[in-house]
Every structure is written in C-alpha cells, then in structure tokens.
Amino acid sequence: MNKSTLPLPPPVFLLIGVVAVSFSSILIKWSEAPASILGMYRLLFTVLLFLPFLPWREMKILFKNSTLKEWLMLAVSGVFLGLHFLFWMESFSHTTVASAMILTALEPVFVVIGAYFLFKEKTSKVGIISILIAVSGSVIIASGDIGVSKTALYGDLLSVLGTVAVSVHMLAGQELCRKMPSIIYSFAVFLIGGLVLFVYNICTNVSLIQYDIKDWWIFLLLALIPNIFGHALFNWLLKYVDATTISMAILGEPIGAIILAYFLLGEMTTVSQLVGGMIVMISVMIFLKYKAAELEKVMALQEKSNIS
C-alpha cells in the first residue's frame, strides 16, 4: 500500500469519513419521508454523482467478461444493500440514534457467522468469545429499551435486521471487490439497491415525488455526505491503508452519531445504552485486532513459503 502519495496523513481522511457517516442518522431523523424513499433517493442520487467519474470502457469489458455466478453475486449484494437501508432507516422512526447505531456495530459478528456457513472460514476461541460478549452487549441495549416501549424494541429489531442485510451484502461482494475497481462495484450495487427500493415503493403505493423541499435537500445530502464523503472515501482509502484500520475507524460512527444526536436532536443516552454500547464496541475492537493479527501471521507464512 502506497501511503506516501496521500496529500494528508491517513487519519485526517479517516476522521472526515467518520464524521460524514455519523451525520447519516441525523439527516434521517430530520426528514419526515418514509424510510424506503430516503433509502431509494440516497442510493440513486449517489449513482448520479458517480456518473462523471466512471471508467466506461473498463466497465464494458468487465461486465462482458463476468460469469453468471459473478452477476448473481452482484445482484444479491445490491438487493441486500437496498434491504439494509430499508430496515436500518426505518429503525430510526421507532428507537433512538444510540440504540440503532450501536447495534450496527454487530456487523463483523454477522459477517463471521455467515463466512463460517458459506465459506467454511473458522474463527478462533478468542474470536468466538468476543462475538458472544458483543451479543450480550446488544441484549443489554434491547433489555433497556423494553423498559422504554415496545416500539423502541421493534426499532432495535429493525436495526439488527438491517445489520444482517448489510452483512450479506458484504459477504456477497467480497470476491467482486477484489476483481473490479471500487467505484464500479459501488455504482452497480447502489443502482441495484436503489431499483429494489423503487419497486418496493411502487408496489406499496408510496409517493415518489410529493415531499417538501427540505426532504429533497436531505435526499441529496444523504448521497453527498455519508455516501460520497463517507463510504466512497473509505473505499478509496483501501489503496493506502488496510481494511482492518478502516473497520476500526468506522466503529467511531456510533460514537459520532450519539454525540451529534445529543447536540442536534436533544437525545439523551440511557444507562443500558452506555453499558451495552461499551461492551459491544470493546468486544468488536478486540475481535478486529485479533483478526488483523491472524491475517498478518498468514501473510508472513505465505511470504516465508514463497521465499523458500
């Protein structure tokens, strides 16, 4: 990885990305539009912003040479990305920013579970223990929300379903990301996800255009801030820093979102959210660090065997 060509140190770009994605939940809370509309326009507006920068000739060659399996994986990745936005954005209508955001930190847990069943990837005892601890933290959050209302618990469930959906999106796309530039992959799955939500809105008779000017600005800002200056920036940084570093940085999103929710929405954090959130965040950090150490060992062994 070439870190010398960056105009600024990597932590500066990581901080920009974390702040950008942290604004996602705030923008969702500010809008009165349905979650399916927010998700649809967030994805489709991002697609429009990508258009001037797409390598069209490379895309044509890449898609022409793609196998049926790769097309299916691309479709699955895009469909579940759309479902992620549908469930996750809807969760904010029922629960707090703190609960919805902390529960999304469980994504590595679901990815590991899915990788075990789909790709037979084994996890060490340390990894399993950290996963169990993370799950216990989410249970603490949910149990605290039971005391708030059944609606809050329903919002927690939607957040978890959204996290499961984005985990499937990640698993389906992990091989594709190695075979195509990140902008082409992102463009394709954003387009598919946006079309999935478009069909959902048509089938459920959700209005596509009757929204206030404030909501249209929020649709655009969701595409521009958390998608372009957040997720697209993280994808670009993969050329300069390792994926684990970015994963660790993204764990700052719930913290940033909770701070912004306090100042911009006046949302207070409960004791169960604080305790459960700390347990989830610490356990996931331990898990990611351990996975990074395991990966370094594997790469060192491979280099040693190549030399010998």
Automatic annotation (TrEMBL):
Tagged with keyword DNA repair: no
Keyword Disulfide bond on entry: no
Cellular component aspect of the GO annotation: membrane
Annotated keywords: Membrane, Transmembrane, Transmembrane helix
Compartments, record wording: Endomembrane system
Membrane topology: Multi-pass membrane protein
Transmembrane segments: 12-31, 37-56, 68-88, 100-119, 126-146, 152-172, 184-210, 216-238, 245-265, 271-290
Source species, domain of life: Bacteria
Ranges of residues in domain EamA: 12-142, 154-287
Membership in a protein family: Belongs to the EamA transporter family.
PANTHER family, per the entry: EAMA DOMAIN-CONTAINING PROTEIN, INNER MEMBRANE TRANSPORTER
Full protein name: Drug/metabolite transporter (DMT)-like permease
Natural source organism: Priestia aryabhattai (Bacillus aryabhattai)
